Amino acid sequence: MQFIDLQAQYTRIAEKVDARIMSAVRSGRFILGPEVQELETALARFSGSSRALGCANGTDALVLPLMAWGLRPGDAVFCPSFTFTATAEVVPWLGATPVFVDIDPATYNMDPAHLEASIEMVKAKGELNPRVVIAVDLFGQPANYPQIADIAKRHGLKLIADSAQGFGCTLEGKHPSHWSDVTTTSFFPAKPLGCYGDGGAVLTDDADLAEIMESLAVHGKAMPRDIEKRAFEHDPKYFNVRIGMNSRLDTIQAAVLLEKLAIFPDEIAARNRIAERYNTHLEKHVDSVPQVIAGGVSVWAQYTIEHSRRDALSAHLKSRGIPTAVYYPIPIHAQEPYAKYPSGPGGLPVTENKADRVISLPMHPYLDEAAQDTIITAIREFQ
């Protein structure tokens, strides 16, 4: 049994995705070929954003807006600790300070009340300048953006929706980009919308910000507005106006993603059917089944339950040939490189509690009822 069955998906789209890949190969336009722009347009349309920028991976997607906003030493960025390290990792890259915020016990996403308390704490101490909030759409469901966006706006902070696990999720029928200044995502193969390698994207309605991020992603290249300001004796592609990086989405990966995006809505619906069936059959047999925020639709990057005897349950399921995973057994703030950075007032008790209890079960759009019944039966038989 597969934890995530990517081959089942490939079987469904093999002919189309193979044709897309070979078209890109035959064109020879391996870097920034037409498929990249086609995908960016499709991603923007899908998410309700004005602009989308493909990049090399989801981590670069997070750092690009921070670079564009001029994040520097002395600035504070508020983010959860119960997530993959990339969310916080990009902040020290620029010399700034991550401030860790606790999570809501029901959704595992950022707790708005603790976010506000954390911002007030930082302001009261006066040692750091609050600049940005990074909310994470953990396990595929949207964070509480109406509340988080209101807090960020009142305190004059930028808001990033880290939707690496949650691209495609909605709240009140709207994508996270409705509330955030920037939405980022990852196309790592295991993500709900994943490619066949690394890839990522940044989405925004801010045209000026998008232009700066595009420049930064290609070595600080000159953009049209920069070129208009001066005459060039040489090819303007060798004119660099910013210190940038090299973060481009490969043409072949864009080609793959175009075909995957075409079936993505159907896969989201399938994931929700499977999650609902899990909930129905497991709610009386585990400590907690997943709860989605009111008005929210998850893309179910993971289906995560809680159990007081997690490790024993995992061993039991393994003995039945059922794979499981634990996200995230050691929160970021508890890891050595991040131990020096502050947490909000009262620490992160919910984060630390959940890290000891969560376990994720197989979840993908092609999990059939027979396989799901095997998993459900094994859990119900666990003593």
Automatic annotation (TrEMBL):
Q: Has UniProt tagged this entry with the keyword Transferase?
A: yes
Q: What is this protein called?
A: Aminotransferase DegT
Keyword annotations: Aminotransferase, Pyridoxal phosphate, Transferase
CDD domains named among the record's database cross-references: AHBA_syn (cd00616)
Family from the record: Belongs to the DegT/DnrJ/EryC1 family.
Q: Which InterPro entries match?
A: DegT/StrS_aminotransferase, PyrdxlP-dep_Trfase, PyrdxlP-dep_Trfase_major, PyrdxlP-dep_Trfase_small
The portions of this protein that span the membrane are none
- Top-down, what is the taxonomic lineage of the species of origin? Bacteria, Pseudomonadati, Pseudomonadota, Alphaproteobacteria, Maricaulales
Q: A Gene Ontology MF term for this entry?
A: transaminase activity
Keyword Transferase listed: yes
Query: Which Pfam families does this one have?
Result: DegT_DnrJ_EryC1
